Amino acid sequence: MQMPADVDGITADLKVPGKRPRVFVNTDRPERRRRFTLAHEYGHIRIPWHMGTIVDVADQEEGDSGNTGYWRMEEEANRFASELLLPRIWLRELCETASAAAVHRAASERAEVSRAATAIALVEAAPPGWLYARIVDGEVRATRKSAGTITDKIPWGMRVTDVELPPGAVKTALSDYDCTHVWWQVEEEQPVPSRSTEREWRDLLDELLSVSGLQRDDQKQLAKRINGVLSAANSGLLTAEARTPQRLYAALITRFRQADLGAAFEAVKEHPLLQEFILARMQVFLSK
Fold it and tell me: Which range has the top average pLDDT, 79-83, 205-209, 247-251?
């Protein structure tokens, strides 16, 4: 079968009564890529709700299509293939041995799987605090984070030079033939400073908002959005194991700094009482 140049593989006649599924793999692709594609197509066969004919387009980015059903099937088949070729137990052991990029390189070589496919598996096996981005021409073209990671994923389409992460984040990178795989390892716990005052959090927030330059009604709206950001960070740590003071403080301060709430909010971020406000808010969360 003559395969279109932009297609990695095709699985036809999935779950069609009276027919056996057929798999076609683009033989012009590198061997490691063909190996993952074959496992991917096998995943379409094994997953019960994947039906009909599915065409796997090469290098199509996550944001290129609004077809969420297609992307859901592709993600499921990718996970099947990566677990088959890169078992998570093995990857978790590797994660304890070296930096993210070094683990990425070693796993790709040992499993004989492309670096792009290895990234899919590694981000699912990694401990909390690992963030990944595939960079093409300086822009983020795919983005993921490990389970339990407080820090938000790197925004799709962002210039890599504009990425801002918490202090202490360790960045490593691995070059590929058409992109760069970049990893950040973020400390998910931070020491909790002592409070310098006993002021109530609402009083502290009012003072923070005083530097925003907004009218009072607009300040109230910004206050609601700030509280929403912090409440979401707290809600992500509601299990007893995850919700230590060190992790909660890291979550609150990280989400606050990463929030994009407009130009007026940028002045609030630089206020000298910011840390005190975060600590006061954290006390309330922990008391519930």
Answer: 205-209
pLDDT of 29-62, one tens digit each?
A: 888 889 999 999 999 999 999 999 999 886 555 5
Report H helices in 148-262.
201-209, 216-235, 245-258
Q: Average pLDDT of 131-152?
A: 90
Contact 116, 176 (CB under 8 A): yes
Of 51-55, 128-132, 167-171, 229-233, the least confident = 167-171
Strand partners, 139: 136, 159
pLDDT tens per residue across span 153-169 = 888 899 988 887 777 78
Share of the chain above pLDDT 90, in %: 56
Residue-range domain boundaries for the chain: 7-85, 88-185, 201-287
Pairwise CA distance, residues 130 & 153, whole Å: 10
Q: Distance between CA 222 and CA 225 in Å, rounded?
A: 5
DSSP state of 166: -
User: The dihedral of CA 193, 197, 203, 206: what is its sign?
Assistant: negative
| Cα–Cα distances in angstroms (integers) from residue 250 to residues 58, 79, 170, 202, 234, in the given order | 39, 30, 16, 20, 10
- Write the single-letter amino acid at 238: L
Nearest to 164 by CA among 180, 140, 189: 140
Q: Taking residues 52-74, what's their average pLDDT? A: 74
Task: Identify the CA nearest to 126 among candidates 72, 71, 188.
Answer: 188
d(Cα 91, Cα 111) in Å, to the nearest integer?
11
Q: What is the DSSP string of 272-285?
A: TTHHHHHHHHHHHH
Which residues, in sequence order, are bridge partners of residue 111?
none
Q: What is the CA radius of gyration of the chain?
A: 23
**Is residue 132 a contact partner of residue 183, using CB atoms and an 8 Å limit?**
yes
